[in-house]
Amino acid sequence: MKQSEQKSPTAIVLAAFGTTYPATLEPILAMLHDVEERYPAIPVRLAFTSNIIRRKWQARSADGNYRREHPAIPEQIYTVKNILGVMADLQNEGYRRIVVQPVLIVDGEEYRDLTAYVEALGAIRIHKPQWQPFEKVAIGKPLLGTFGHREQLDTLVRALKPDIDDARAADATLVYMGHGNEHMAQGTYYELEILLRREYNIPVCIGLVEGLPDFETVREKLANAGARKVLLKPLMYVAGDHARNDMAGGEEDSWLTLLENDGYRVTPILEGLGENPAVRAIFLDLLEQAAQQAAIDL
C-alpha cells in the first residue's frame, strides 16, 4: 500500500489563543490529549491565533538555556504556527478534510477572524476539482456558543458546579473575569450569569476586561448584594497574563487590589476553565458536532 493511502484524509486542528506562561500550557496540552485520545487514528495539530505569543515561543526555541530550564515543554509549542500555516502543512501532507475546533470562549473578534480564515480556505475552487486544496472544511463553535444555542450554556452551567461549590463553602460571592471585547455583543455573558444564579441560588458576577459588563458593573452588583467575601476566578481557558496581572496582580488597578481597597476579603484562584475536565468535554462535543454538520467522519 502506498504511503498516501495509509494516511487518513481527515485531520483536526485545535486553535487556541495561546499563552506565554509555561505553567499555563497544561490546559491546552490536556485538550490536545483529550482529542487525541478520542480520535486516536486522526492527526491532531495545534495552532495559536496570537501573533505575539507565537513569536515569543519561536524566539525561545533558539534559547538553549530556556529549553534546558523547561524540559517538559513539547517541541510543537516552540514551533507552533497560525491557522494558515497549520492548514497549509496539512494540505501539503495530503489531508483534504479538516475540522478546526477553536479553544476560545465567546463568539467575538478572535473567533470571527479565525472563522474568516477557515471558511476562506474551504471556499477555494479551482478549474480541476480533483486539485482543490480541501474537499471539506469545518469549524466548531466557541465555548459559549453562537447566537441561539441555549443548550450549550446549560451544559456549561453544570460543568461550572465545582466553582459554585467552592464559593458556597467559602460563603463568598463568585466573581468571574472574562476577556470580552469592544467590537462584539456581550449578551452571552449576561445570560450565563443569570443561568448560574438561577441554577445554584448563589450570587455570581461576571465582568470583562474589555466591553460590558465591566469591572464597575461587578462593583455595583457586589455593593447592592451586601457582599463581604469574594472568590475571584478567570472565565478564560487558561489563567494567563490577564488572570495573573489584571485580575490577581499586585498593581493598584488590578481587580484584586481594587476589591480589597473596597473592603472585600478576596480569594483569587489562578485556574483557567481548561483545567476543568467537564469544560474540555464540551469542546470535544463541539468538535464532533462540527464534523457531523460537515459530513466529515472522525
Explain how this protein is built:
Helix content is 46%, strand content 15%. The chain starts with a helix and ends in a 5-residue tail after the last helix. The longest helix has 17 residues. It has a four-stranded parallel sheet, with helices on both faces. The chain has a four-stranded parallel sheet with strand order 6-5-7-8, with helices on both faces. It is an alpha/beta fold.
Name the quaternary structure.
single chain
Dominant shape:
globular
Main sheet properties: 4 strands, parallel
The portion of residues assigned to helices is: 40-55%
* Gap between N and C termini: 22 Å
Rounded average pLDDT: 92
List how many beta strands DSSP finds: 8
Radius of gyration in whole Å, from Cα? 21 Å
* Helix-and-strand structural type: alpha/beta
The run of helices and strands is HEHEHHHHEHEHHEHEHEHHEH
Q: Report the β-strand fraction as a percent range.
A: 5-15%
How would you summarize the topology of this molecule?
Elements: H1 3-6, E1 10-16, H2 26-38, E2 44-48, H3 51-60, H4 64-69, H5 75-78, H6 83-92, E3 97-103, H7 109-122, E4 136-139, H8 150-159, H9 161-169, E5 173-178, H10 187-200, E6 204-208, H11 215-225, E7 229-234, H12 241-247, H13 255-261, E8 265-268, H14 277-293
Parallel strand pairs: 1-2, 1-3, 3-4, 5-6, 5-7, 7-8
Helix pairs in contact: 2-14, 8-14
